[in-house]
Amino acid sequence: MSIAATANVSSSQVLSAAAMLDHWQGHRRLTRRVIEAFPEDQLLNFSLGTMRPFGAMAMELLTIGVPMVRGIVTTEWHRLEQPAPSSKGEVLRLWDEDTAALDHLWRQIPPERFQETMSAFNQYPGKVYDLLMYAIDNEIHHRGQGYVYLRALGIEPPAFYERE
Amino acid sequence: MSIAATANVSSSQVLSAAAMLDHWQGHRRLTRRVIEAFPEDQLLNFSLGTMRPFGAMAMELLTIGVPMVRGIVTTEWHRLEQPAPSSKGEVLRLWDEDTAALDHLWRQIPPERFQETMSAFNQYPGKVYDLLMYAIDNEIHHRGQGYVYLRALGIEPPAFYERE
Hints:
The structure is a homodimer.
Chain A: H1 3-6, E1 13-16, H2 17-37, H3 40-45, H4 54-74, H5 88-106, E2 117-120, E3 124-127, H6 128-152
Antiparallel strand pairs in A: 2-3
Helix pairs in contact in A: 2-5, 2-6, 4-5, 4-6
């Protein structure tokens, strides 16, 4: 039995930075397919129970994800405005810009920073790994809501397990 | 600058096993509050767009989460049956049993196992850390759908960011 195997499970490491980025980009590919699955009019206007249309939720995700990582890299926080999207094409274009930006910024996170405490957007204090998981979880949460919208519209959503 | 700080970000470790368990149990506390927020009749019967009631989704989560961790610990896979729940009290009781079981089982995961490949339920191959994240993500996904049900019922859901 190796030394690692005799270590307490609590301190053992589960996830590398590269694996976390892969995981997130896989989720982002799925979210992009959910955006695509909406007819434009429904993306911008359809909602249930006083909630926002999925296009507005997607814009929220864009104001949290990459701006979060940029703040973690630079230690400067600029929260983006969150305008209502004007078209499905605009949402997808912004989404694709952020796919490339996320890959680029991720490589610049100092390795020790993941365990540091920062105050995201000067408002939300937490361990950096927790802040990043919050951004990913928030995407999964709202995308799940998008699935209900699609089902309510009679549209088959993309498979949850497919992340390529 | 430490050796760790000069390492490539890709191989740096983001998440310990203890942090992953904390993260999951925080999500499970929130999911429990979502179950509680439903009136019993709506938990068992209300749905939108040909989807399942939230009580049935909660039962699915119970057949994936702890059974996944038990299989990772024992390398034996037993998928639980997924009966429709008979009452809100039953769902909450099963949920609470699994809260304790998850803490107990987690400590038994051999530290090196997180990076190994297993075939969950003899059907879904993947790295163990990815299988665990899949279980957590699936919970977030369905819980987000429960939020829409609650909103459609005119019920304010619990705050997404509250995990205590």
